[in-house]
Design brief:
The longest helix is centred in the N-terminal third of the chain and has 33 residues. The protein has a single domain, classed as Methane Monooxygenase Hydroxylase, Chain G, domain 1, CATH 1.20.58. The chain is mainly α. The chain is elongated.
Length: 84
């Protein structure tokens, strides 16, 4: 356990950030799963748009790497195209 005041604060902040990041990552995974689970092309396209927004936001905030977001978007786009 930290003894120094700033280290205690950093630990508190780290816990709070971990909870927030876990929620954001869960939302990201759910958005990706919704695209994969879509049965119609229209539903897949709508889910894809939502997933792209979530992926871009996660990359911008440093939750995932920008190349990882790009890879997910490319693979989801291919999956949506396959449904059409």
């Amino acid at each position: 356990m930290p003894r120094i005041k700033s280290a205690k604060k950093a630990m508190r902040q780290g816990r709070a950030h971990a909870v927030h990041n876990r929620a954001q990552r869960s939302a990201l995974r759910t958005a990706v799963k919704r695209v994969r689970a879509a049965t119609s092309a229209a539903a897949a396209q709508e889910a894809y748009r939502a997933a792209v927004r979530v992926l871009d936001r996660a990359a911008r905030r440093g939750l995932i790497h920008k190349n990882s977001a790009a890879r997910h978007k490319a693979r989801l786009a291919a999956a949506v195209k396959k449904l059409k």
